[in-house]
Amino acid sequence: MVRTQVCLDAPMLYSPALLLVDMQNEFVHPQGKLFVPGAPETVPHLAAVLQGFRRAGLPVIHVRREHCPDGSDVETVRREAFRRMGGFCLPGSWGAHFVAELAPVTGEMVVIKHGWSAFLGTELHGHLQEMGIRTLVIGGTQTPNCIRATLYDATSLGYEVVLLGDGTSSAHPEVQAANLRDLAALGVPILSCSELLALLSPKGEPA
User: Alpha-carbon torsion 88, 92, 94, 95, what sign?
Assistant: First the structure.
């Protein structure tokens, strides 16, 4: 079970965990093979939220995409790109590593995925159930693909979700804005990282 049972003073933030999706060099660093231009600016925002969860003693889960060198586990629509690029997110490679600012510390869970969703073919759901997690605070990249797939699976499995608007990213600002509008219209709660931090901080203490 979760060591610290928290009911934050906001809708649907009960027994929360932070889920950071694909914040790896391959996506976040300009030299990454699948660089997402909007990703670097989210790093300091997510780093602040990460520290907030750590201070509060709340669970943090890091999701890392990895692929077999032969590309057999790559989505069908990306197999040609994988071959052309000589592979990406290969286990142990620089591209597969988390960016330094968001690297896991001892005791934080790392989930390896091979597709869009952090739930597909992984142990994530079982671990969340064991920990008693009810709400996932989701950040990472990129919003139209892995973030949306993970969010949809989370809600289908019965989790409450909160999306970090400035803690997620897309290839273009207009794509990010359109996705956030679309998700908000679906009823997904969207908070800025500073708003989330304010909820994590006891009243009277700085975030």
Answer: positive
